[in-house]
Design a protein that fits this description.
Layout: H1 2-22, E1 33-35, H2 40-54, E2 61-73, E3 75-87, E4 94-105, E5 111-118
Antiparallel strand pairs: 1-2, 2-3, 3-4, 4-5
């Protein structure tokens, strides 16, 4: 009878530990994690994105970095919610908008702009 009690107790203990462990929120390996908008590397990535996009859209300027996330891969992906302004060609008015930019920095510290979309979506709050 003592053996059965010990066995049942051990199984119960293992189940409780497993349930507690599964309930914890841990970062997903390879997923995006929030980082500071004032981080020097984030600012550098944002400035790169603005400079790269300026070749297509004149008078583009960075107003603020609203939120920043990074993903460690073979290099780093920066997913940034940027507040930008630019001069509309037709109306000549200054337009302010939010864009989501994804900038990749490879292991040799070279940057590339992999995505530029209007709005920041649900993953980054604006």
């Amino acid at each position: 009878m003592k053996f059965k009690f010990k066995l049942i107790s051990a199984v119960f203990f293992i189940l409780v530990c497993a349930c507690v462990n599964f309930g914890q929120d841990e970062p997903v390996t390879g997923g995006y994690a929030e980082t500071s908008v004032s981080n020097a590397e984030v600012v550098k990535a944002a400035k790169f994105a603005i400079k790269k996009r300026s070749s297509q859209q004149k008078n583009l300027s960075l107003t603020a970095i609203k939120q920043a996330e990074l993903q460690v891969v073979a290099g780093i992906n920066y997913r940034l919610c940027l507040q930008i302004t630019f001069k509309d060609k037709k109306s000549k008015k200054i337009i302010e908008q939010f864009v989501m930019a994804i900038i990749y920095r490879n292991l040799k510290n070279s940057y590339s702009l992999t995505s530029w979309t209007e709005g920041c979506g649900d993953s980054i709050k604006s």
